[in-house]
Amino acid sequence: MEKKYIKKQIRFNFGGQKLLFDVNQSLFSSFSVDDGTKMLLNSLRKNLEINYSKILDLGCGYGTMGIFLKKQNPPSEVHCTDRDVLATEFTKHNAILNNCEIKSYPSLDYEEVKDKFSLIITNFPAKAGTEVLKKFVWDASNHLTEKGIFSIVIVRELEKEFREILREGIEIIYEEKKGGYFVFHLGYNKKISFEEDIYFRDKINYVLEEKRYFLNTVRNVPEFEKASYHTELINEILEKLEAKVVGIINPFQGHRAISAEHFLKPKKINLISRDLLQLKSSKENLEINNFFNFDVSATIEIETKGDLLIWIFDKNEDVETIVEKLKLFKKNYNKIIFCDEKKKVEHIIKIAKMKVVDKKEKNNLKCVLIE
């Protein structure tokens, strides 16, 4: 893990373990380990039926629960997954920091999970929604060993929805309420099939120069209703450009990738993001519109090269980090387009000392082309 990503170190003294976690401000609970995590971990010691031989931390963040349980149970095999590549990279880093071995890899829910586990744990993200919650709970039955346990902590606002998705074959073997959280331990006596598209939100039109494109948008990714002002400003600059190889960082639902195909007709597009759901949505929407000349990179380090890079910043990414990345990206791409709040963009340009060759503004946003 490069130092540029580490913004703070957290001390976690809990259950007889003294742990350190390096964090980034864009990851969940980056100020301190949250109460829900502590409540779930504390609940495990009260359930004597739990087998710790093989553990999955689903949605691991920077690795708190998985690393804690590995330190508590050294013989155990621990897997940590998250849809955010930055989270799984921090988990790898923090495992080394705390002198333990775990397996950490990106996965959108259970998609990349091939093994079966005696214990699955998750601090469920409230904003993910009921359909994702159902997927986590139901599909756990297909990833647990016989008598395996699924342990989850949720915010109290989700209690009603949680109880409504329970069905025959799922048994609550432990529950606890404290403050704003509920913890449940579940057992399963049969496999529960789950084939729904839990992320689909809507089918929308995207019109460029009277040409109509179609996108299937997903929940919890920006631009689920229509293209943002960011994309509109980027399109105004794209209309005048030529590029054979285009990189797009954070493609969201795929609007900017389709714009690049429409205006530039490049030989290749590189879709780049740390978020697996963004990449899945963009990939599928390009294919829906019969565009297939693209590669997908789930990464935090941009290694691709080309003529043009289109960049929407990660949430909460600070100016210093952006400027450092900008200088690195400029070595691999001839031109870069980025868009954000006007003051932030102007501050970045001033610090980076790069030449602006085109710019567009709308409301409080500014989009620039640098070379």
What would you say this structure looks like, in words?
The chain is an alpha/beta fold. It has 2 domains: 3-188, Rossmann fold; 200-370, Rossmann fold, CATH 3.40.50.150. It is built from 10 helices and 18 strands. It has helices at 35-44, 64-72, 85-97, 130-139, 159-165, 229-238, 255-264, 276-288, 319-332, 342-352, and strands at residues 8-14, 17-23, 54-58, 77-82, 103-106, 117-123, 144-155, 170-178, 181-188, 200-208, 211-218, 245-249, 268-273, 294-298, 306-311, 333-341, 356-362, 365-370. A 7-stranded mixed β-sheet has the order 5-4-3-6-7-9-8, with helices on one face. A 7-stranded mixed β-sheet has the order 14-13-12-15-16-18-17. Helix 6 (229-238) packs parallel to helix 7. The model has no long low-confidence stretch (mean pLDDT 96).
Beta-strand proportion? 25-35%
CATH architecture designation of the largest domain: 3-Layer(aba) Sandwich
Looking at CATH, the homologous superfamily of the largest domain is: Vaccinia Virus protein VP39
Helical residue percent band: 25-40%
Order of neighbouring strands in the sheet with most strands = 5-4-3-6-7-9-8
DSSP summary, beta strand count: 18
Distance between the termini: 29 Å
**What's the CATH C level of the largest domain?**
Alpha Beta
Largest sheet: 7 strands, mixed
CATH topology (fold) name of the largest domain: Rossmann fold
- What structural category arises from helix and sheet content? alpha/beta
Question: What number of structural domains do the residues give?
Answer: 2
